[in-house]
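tool=predict chain=A
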Amino acid sequence: MMPHTSIPRPSGHDQARRQGLLFVISAPSGAGKTTLCKSVRSDFPDLLYSVSYTTRKPRSGEREGVDYHFISAKDFKERIRQGRWAEWAEVHGNIYGTSADVIDAGLSAGRDILLDIDVQGTIQILARYPECVTIFIMPPDMETLRHRLESRGTDDREEIARRLKNAEEEMAQRDLYRHVILNDRLDEAQEELKTLIRQYRSDKGRHFSGPSL
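tool=predict ok
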C-alpha cells in the first residue's frame, strides 16, 4: 500500500504560486475510466488534462489532440531516446506516453493536472512525482468487465481475451494506489471520485490523505 502523503499548505505570497497537484487515474480496459475522467473534467474545467500520445490508430470518433496525440512508432521511439516522456509503456501492441514537458510546466505554474494512464505508467510517474495522488478504478467483477468490453464492439474475441488477462494483472497491483474506487454504479463512482479530488484541491485538502478503500 502506498504511504499517504501530506501536502503542506503554502502561505502568504507562495499561496498563489503553489506547486500543482498531479492526479493519476488508472483502470483495466472497460472499467469506465474514460467516462469518469470526462465527468471530472466537466466539473473541474480548470483542471489541466494531459492528453497522452500513442502509436495506435484512432478509433471511430476519436480526435487528434482531444482523445490522444497520434504519432508514428518512429517518432515515439525518437522521443524515448531524447528523454521527453514522463512515462511510457507498450500496451496491447501499441505504445503510449505522457509528455514530461507538459507535466513539469503545468505543475510549476501551479496547475492541477489529471493523468489517465495504465499501471505501468503509474509506476514510472511515482518514481518521478512521488507526491502524486493515485486512484485506481475497479470493475465490479470480471464477468461485468467482459460484458462491457464485448458491448463496445471495437475488439474481436482474441483481443477481448487479452484485455481480460491484462485486467487481472492490473487489478493485482491496485495496492500501488492511494485510493481505489469501485465502479459498480456509475453515478456513485463519479461522485466518489469528484469528492476525493475536491478534498485534495480545497485548503483543507492540502492536508487530506484519506485511506485507500
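Residues 1-16, 207-213 have pLDDT under 50 and may be disordered. The chain has one domain: 15-207.
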